[in-house]
Every structure is written in structure tokens, then in C-alpha cells.
Fold this sequence. Notes:
The complex is a heterodimer of chains A (773) and B (244). With 773 residues, chain A is an alpha+beta fold. Helix content of chain A is 53%, strand content 18%.
Amino acid sequence: xxxxxxxxxxxxxxxxxxxxxxxxxxxxxxxxxxxxxxxxxxxxxxxxxxxxxxxxxxxxxxxxxxxxxxxxxxxxxxxxxxxxxxxxxxxxxxxxxxxxxxxxxxxxxxxxxxxxxxxxxxxxxxxxxxxxxxxxxxxxxxxxxxxxxxxxxxxxxxxxxxxxxxxxxxxxxxxxxxxxxxxxxxxxxxxxxxxxxxxxxxxxxxxxxxxxxxxxxxxxxxxxxxxxxxxxxxxxxxxxxxxxxxxxxxxxxxxxxxxxxxxxxxxxxxxxxxxxxxxxxxxxxxxxxxxxxxxxxxxxxxxxxxxxxxxxxxxxxxxxxxxxxxxxxxxxxxxxxxxxxxxxxxxxxxxxxxxxxxxxxxxxxxxxxxxxxxxxxxxxxxxxxxxxxxxxxxxxxxxxxxxxxxxxxxxxxxxxxxxxxxxxxxxxxxxxxxxxxxxxxxxxxxxxxxxxxxxxxxxxxxxxxxxxxxxxxxxxxxxxxxxxxxxxxxxxxxxxxxxxxxxxxxxxxxxxxxxxxxxxxxxxxxxxxxxxxxxxxxxxxxxxxxxxxxxxxxxxxxxxxxxxxxxxxxxxxxxxxxxxxxxxxxxxxxxxxxxxxxxxxxxxxxxxxxxxxxxxxxxxxxxxxxxxxxxxxxxxxxxxxxxxxxxxxxxxxxxxxxxxxxxxxxxxxxxxxxxxxxxxxxxxxxxxxxxxxxxxxxxxxxxxxxxxxxxxxxxxxxxxxxxxxxxxxxxxxxxxxxxxxxxxxxxxxxxxxxxxxxxxxxxxxxxxxxxxx
Amino acid sequence: xxxxxxxxxxxxxxxxxxxxxxxxxxxxxxxxxxxxxxxxxxxxxxxxxxxxxxxxxxxxxxxxxxxxxxxxxxxxxxxxxxxxxxxxxxxxxxxxxxxxxxxxxxxxxxxxxxxxxxxxxxxxxxxxxxxxxxxxxxxxxxxxxxxxxxxxxxxxxxxxxxxxxxxxxxxxxxxxxxxxxxxxxxxxxxxxxxxxxxxxxxxxxxxxxxxxxxxxxxxxxxxxxxxxxxxxxxxxxxxxxxxx
Lengths: 773, 244
């Protein structure tokens, strides 16, 4: 055993550069893998911990304000809930903090504790008077509102001032950047904060065991059947809330897992290449080892150890760094859930990562190491190195026929002289370029989707109206501005759609809403009353197809609808309907807009417009320039993608560098001969760079379509997880020029990676090499 | 006689070497000469050849070939010099295994930018008696055939100087004789040849001049066609020296 160790360590010292390549690639792959596994293992746990600790509500149901409180209280027994909260009176509250106005559903609740949906106070105290309000911490942080700050309620004519008494963490709603938010006041404060038509009741339910979505749907149906029609106006279950909480980490984890598999595959390819190269170049040495008594398995062990030592070092550095890199994301989750952040890692999982990574590396090295172990000493002692690769001749001949200069033709032939090596290198390059393609495309697709969701480029100003201001008055102010080019009024309401348990959020538009820029997956935008669009989840769950007529009910009245298009919309995870104002003219004649989406005339100054409209009605209008910025979770995903792409691209560069290193070392005699017969150093460099460029070009040509395909696949995964199909516009984010440029950039990077081995080849000492026979 | 090669006080010390591989060698070779450099292993004869070929640089002293001061050339200049003025035949042929015989022959011409040297390459192979192997790969050729291919490669750019380092060292006697006859024929056609060998008989059989190198110094410079020293004398002396 000592002899094996001594020989392996001595070889490692001699092959420091190869050891370095293994260390770097294994480190990057293992670091990424550890990060993915750490996140994966922790994605579900924190939510469950917080949900249990805060006795989260499995089901929340909103009831019409006219529903009998006694009947509501009885619903808990009806569905077998072990605990319930409410009925709490809820009102839609608009308030002003600083220069901004916000809307929150404000719940009248006297106690943050109880058997369901306990609210964890993270700052301040629970409201104790009618002029105090508690906000979610997520909302306070997003909008920079702190405890002690005064806010002015603008949705009621009296415009009372409230003091922010507490920041709380509510396990039963998503974060403020993804979901609308609740606020809490004492139940006695609600009447003074309510305008007619803006209130409802909320009941929360908790069961002995975690029910499934289907079970909760059945519970809602039971309640619906037991109460008068139109009593249920909304509902929310914990599965959806958990999805919203976890969606960022889930997407990041999926991306990380996919790409850490890529990284490990690329590393395995590099290791296999490297060991093959070492075996090829050490033929005589292997013969001597066997001649002096090394058994075949001992030869195998020497080669395995040479690889496993740097790989182990890489794991010992990569695993802790992977754990560290995953902590900010975990801390983010803990923070959002109101949990104390505790550095998270699992020794068992990390040991498993270590063992798994070393196993992959050892397996990759095994075949070439076996080849070394099985070599016959008599044969290999007579040969300094293995027979040189003979493939690539046809390529070289083709290049010669095409009148490429000789160094280029030779380089083209060299690229595929050893097909197995070329293929393994191609794998590393392919993964690198494909990942870069994905990292380039996904953020753009996210931006395209974000642009459609935020009306970027189509809406300049968003005006939100207090219920206290009439539609006509708001429109008068807006239309009085000369820069107003187009106004689309918007409101929302909850429909009951057959086949869908939860009430469906309808987005109702007045004006030319077809120009808001929503991305269509299929069909067309609505053009008249009754025509609706919906995302995939609703279409699928309601068993609809384009052109289908169906009935839905609003506040107990039936509305006939026809599905004319599939739209992309991630809010409500795909359960929404888009329709024209006229659709509701008979069933909801008193419908009034919540917001006006305003397009200005070209060149108009947005800031001046905002200022002027806000000044015209400072209390009852919230006027803001349209905010089209990307939401935080998408930024996190974009950043992770960028880092991953850089890591895998680096591994790809390592792969090509490694191959060139092996090629140039293996072909040192040929290079010396070529120099002796007159090849200049520049021509040697050109030859080496050409072989790198050819592999990179072939890799790039395969990788770009693969990357585009992978981009589409991942995009579909993300879309599907949000209840949508991907619109074609989100796929079309690459310009032909870019797709052409990607392999070219790959070639340039490969040529740059070739400079060092090319330089070594160019400096080959002819005398030493040619006389060392 | 036109001087083709001139070495002046050339010293070559290899890194880590205590003594020089060449210790102050001065030498002149005329155009058209067939010169043999002899000496035991480690005497410095191959070093001498490498310096003249521009494969290596002297530690001190001057090497001038065909009027070109090699010390003044950079790496690219030396590569051009080797390509344009020198043909080199190695003991172990050093053919590129991935290229056919003809492709190996054509390499120096193609590196020079002469892409249409096919006819000359084929002609050379015919003249060297191996026209039929033009499309074979080195692995399919005998040692003698490989060395002829190497000679054809050395001649493709019509070099002013043909250098051969132990060209028969890796061949059997019969093949070795054929290669030497070939070099003699080339010399008769006007080719300047500098041959390095440790075989005294081989050196004296075709060369008109035999330079003996020992411990990095020229210890004898015998012009066999002009002196009264019979070749046998040189052979005997060098054999004794080698065996000491």
C-alpha cells in the first residue's frame, strides 16, 4: 500500500497542472451540487416549521358581508375543522404613507393568538386602540414603512390617521412582492374604515392533519351547498400559499440541480479524458511499474489515487463553500417566514455529497486506469507512449482539398485524432455553451413576461382610485390632461367557475385593453361582452377548450361566457379570467374601476404628469409612474443562473484546456518534427488553436440548439409551476445573430484557452525532444 | 570554392552541464562538399549539426550558413531558415504518423506556402525508389522506406544544405547501405551534405571529408580526396578513439 501511495503522490507532484484542472472543475461542480442539495433539503422544512408553530390556516374562506355570522361559525363543524378563526370583518383599505398610497385588506381582529393563524409580532405591539394598525413585515420592509409611523386612510371620507403599531409575520399569505397583503385593526375599528360594498368576512380553518387540495375543494363545496348562493366570495388554501413561499427556492433548486448534474457530467468527462491522457503518455512508465512488481490492481490504484486526491481536496473546499453560498437564500426564506435564521447544513447529506462526487470521479477514471492495469509490460516498455490517434484524417484531407494553409489543416485533423477524447471534450463544451445560452435566454424571457405583466412600454402611469371618489370624477381629472392618450380602466371581482373550487379572480377592463401587451398563448383578445381569456390552469381545471361556451356566476348571478383565448398570467397561479367591462354590465351595473392604466402621448414627461394628476386629487387618487421593475425572486433566479453559467462555462474552458494540454504533450514529437522542417512558432500556435477552435465550433453548433431547447424546457417548467403555458413571445428571445455569435464566442474562448498549451508547443525544444528516443 | 557554412569559436554549454558540449569549434564547409562528422557518443557531433541546422543556438560564437548569421535570427526567422535552406534527416525518421508518405514529403513546401508541390513530391519519391508508397502511412513502411521518405521531405524545398544525423542508425545493414548510396547520388548531383555518424566505415565510404569530434572539440579534419591519408587510416584512428 505504501508503494502505491508513494508512487501516486510522486505522480501527483509531477502532474501538478492536471491535478489543478481536476481540483478546479471538481470544486466548481461539487460546490454547485452542494448548494442545490442544501436548498433542496431545506425548501419544504422551514415553511412547515413556521406553519406548525403559527398554527397556520389550512383554509381561508371569504364570505359576502351579508352572510349570517352564526351560519359562518357553523361551517367549522360542517367541514370537520379542529379549530377556526373568525368570522373576522374585513374591509378594503386604501391609505397614504408619505407620498405613496397603498391598498390592503384590513381585518378586524382583537388577538394575534388563537387556535388558527397565529400572527408573530416581530416589532411593536398588537393594536390596542382603534387608531392603530398592524402591517405584515414583508409589506413594511418592501415599502419602507416602520412601527410608529402615521398613515392616512384615504378610502373613507373622514380620512382618519392610523399609527403603525406592529409588524407581524403571517404564515397564511405570500410575501408582499408576490401577493396582496393583509393588515389588522381592532374589530371595533372596522366600521369607521369601511365604505359600502368594500367589506366581507373572513374565516380561517385548521384541521388535525394536513388535508390535500382536493379535500379542501370538497370542504368548500360543502360550505357552498350549505349557505345561500353567493355567500362565498373567495378562498385560499395553504398549498397555494406554500407554493408562493417556496416558488423562488423551488425554481432556483430545479435550476441548480439541473446544472449541477451538467457540471458533474462535464467534470467526469474531463477526468476520463485526463486519466486516458496520462495513461497514454505514461506507457513506458506503466511497463516499468509492472516489471518491478506492481500488480494490475495496484497500477489501477495508483491512477485512481492521483485523481481522487485532488478531487477530495476539491470536495473539502467545495462542500463548505456550497453550504455557505446557499445560506443567503435559506436566510431569506427564514426571514420571510419570521423564523430565526439558523445556519443550515446536514452532515449526513454533505457526507453523501462527498461520497457521491468521489464515486463519480473514481468511476470516470476507472476505465482508463483499468486499461493501464491490463497493459502487458513487454509491449509497453518498448513504446514510449501509446500509438497516436489516427482519426481525423478525412477531416484533414478535406481541409487540404479546401486549400486551407497546412497548419490549419493539421490542426483540424488533430482535433479529432482521438475521437473519444474529442467527444468527451465536446461534452464539456456543449454543456458550457448550452448553459450560457440558457442563462442568456431565461432572464430575457422573464423580462418579456414581466413586461407583459407590468404593461411595460404600453402604460406610462397607473392611477388608483379610492372608493370614495367617483369614476366620473377620476376620469374628468385624467382626461383633462393634454398628455393623456389612452385610458384603460380596470377592476377585479371573484367569479365562481364550474370545476374550479376556489373563486376565480376576474380582471375586468374598460377601454382598449388589447393594447396593454398581455402575452397570448393561443386564440385572440376579447372583442366584446361575454368573451373571456384565461391562463392554462383554469382552462385545464375547468375542462375547457378555445371556443367553448360556459356559465360562471358572480354574486349569485349567472353569466354566459365564451373562451376566445389563452393568456399568460402568473398571478393567482393561472386561475383568472380576463374580460371586457360590458360583460358585467347587467350583473354588476355598479361596477367601478380600482385603477386606470394610462398611456401618454409620445414624448410626454411622466413625472410632471404624475405630479399634476396627484395634485388635482391628493387624497383620493394614488398616481404613480408605471413600475416595470423585475420582482425580487426573479432577480435571485437571474443571478443564480448567471453564476451557474459562469461556473459551467469555466468547466468547459477547463475541458478544452485539458484536452489541448494532453494533445500537445502527446504530440510533442510531431510538433518538434514540424518545427525542425520549418514550422514557425506562429504556425504552431495556429495549429493548436485551430484544433481547439474546431472542437469548440462543433460543440457550439450542437450546443446552441440544445441550449435553445433547454431554455424552452426550463421556461415551460417555470410557466407550468405558475399554472401557465409559455407564450411564443417568451421563447423568441434570441436573435439569429446572437445564436450565430454564441458558437463564435465559444471558438474565441477556446482559442484563448489554447494560447497556453499552444505557447508550450511553439516553444518545444526540438533538440531535446527529437534526440530523446 | 564557395563557403556555405562557417562556425567561429562556437561554444555550447547545456543547462546543468559542467563542461561544454562544444568547446570553441571553428569550421568551414564549402558548397558541394560531402562532409562526415564523426565521434563517439557524447562527443558533441549532433550538437554541431543542430547548431548548423538552426535547431539550437550556441552559448557563444558565430554560426553562418549561406551568408546568414543564425545568431541574428529570432525563432520565426530560424524556422524560415530551416524551411528554406536546410533539409534535415533524423536517425528515427520522425515522420508524422497521421500523414501519408507524400503528405509528409510535402509538409515543408506547404509551410512555405507552396501548395502545388505535389508533382515535385511524387518525383522525389520516384527518384528515391519509393514512388509506389506515396499514399501509405508511415506505420505501413519499412525502416528503409521511412528514411527515404524523410530524405524526400528534406529535399522538397531544394535546400542548400542537407543535414543527416545518424541516418542509418535505426536501419538494418542493407537498408542503411541503400540510404548511404542515395546520399552519395545526391552529392554527385551537387547537393551539399553534412553527415553525422559514429560509424567510421560509413563516414569514409562516401564522404570526401571526415571531421572528428571528441569532447566538444575538432580533433581531426581529414580531406580524403586531397590528402595522402588513406581512408583506412582514418577509420582505424577513429575506431581506436571510440573504443578508448
